[in-house]
Amino acid sequence: MAQPKYEGYCECTPTKLIREKFGDVNVFAQNAKSLLTKATGFIGDYDFTLNPYRGCQYGCSYCYAAAFTPNAQMRQDWGKWVIFKENAAEILAKELKKWYEKNPKIPPSIYMSSVTDPYQPLESKHQLTRRLLDVMLDVSIDGYPTPTLVIQTRSPIITRDIDYLQRFKRLRINMSIPTGSELVRKDFEPRSPSIKARLNAITKIKQSIDYFKGFLPKISITITPLLPTLATDEAAFIDKIAIADRVVIQAFHPSQSCSLMASTRQEAEEIKQKYAWWWMRN
Questions:
Q1: Where does 15-168 have alpha helices with state H?
Q2: Distance, CA of 160 to chain centre
Q3: Greater confidence, 80 or 265?
Q4: Around Cβ 181, how many Cβ atoms within 10 Å?
């Protein structure tokens, strides 16, 4: 089957037109054939990954997910386009039904998301992730256990869904905060939320859930990849991330010249040179 041709990213007649503009981002809509993908690699302990969107508005310079784009031009424009999967909720409902028919007492473990941010700015309008949470919670109506869920994000928008999040018995929220210095964040991920906004979001989640009405999720701070934190910010950052019950630290992915392989982008490699002194010291 021929691959979709996206408007602005092909020389021929496009098969996928720009549905809307969200800031400077081109937004395409597309129906998904499947939503739950078998988890592999460093998240292979989970049953599935789930990505409501393809592409990410945050467009972080180091993001390995850019390698999995439809074509080289879209890879170059990482952060300037997003594809949202219009039928995601319907597909997830069907796939979960199929899982529970085979495993009625075993909840699937789902990692959301591996190559996008489920709470990127577009989510505030389309509420795709919220609809997926609704589908996962609905399985309890039929007597099935709610999926075990990990949400990976860097977005304060997640606080909008506290009413849903507290209904998951097995939930971990991974908040990505690769650096404790705003100057460094602005160099490597200028389109992403501030460090303060992310920490405030975690605090709000922990303070807003009533122990008598819901379940408090486990909280991780993921320093992935490990970016420099300037000496003037280091002590305060260490103190603030103590709010989490786990801190995950991971180095950059190796740089690869080929696509379809997790890889640190050249853009980040160039920015790293500015902070070469930090990596040498540490």
A1: 72-76, 88-102, 123-126, 128-138, 162-165
A2: 16
A3: 80
A4: 19
